[in-house]
Hints:
mainly alpha, 2 helices, 80% helix, flat
Amino acid sequence: MDLTSFKLVYGVLVGVQVLVSVTLDFVSGIKGLFFVWVCVAMACEGGHFALYSALCAKLFGKDQGGLVFSVLYYCFGTASVLGFVLQLYIVKVVPM
């Protein structure tokens, strides 16, 4: 990341994730390729987590970036728990 601009690295990461997300339905019938697509999607998600601290430092500066990162990092877990609760108690199961 130090050799190239942050926007280029993040842009490539988002581009790969969008490409994988759009084509995931098309490869769902092929087990091996679907496995590779899911692995690439999870790698992109890991890339977002890895670049998140650098993004906070870039946007808010080195001093405030650490504070913002430490507060916003818990939003990922909170959103996961909230999504589970919403799915469990609010969203109705639609039979296929």
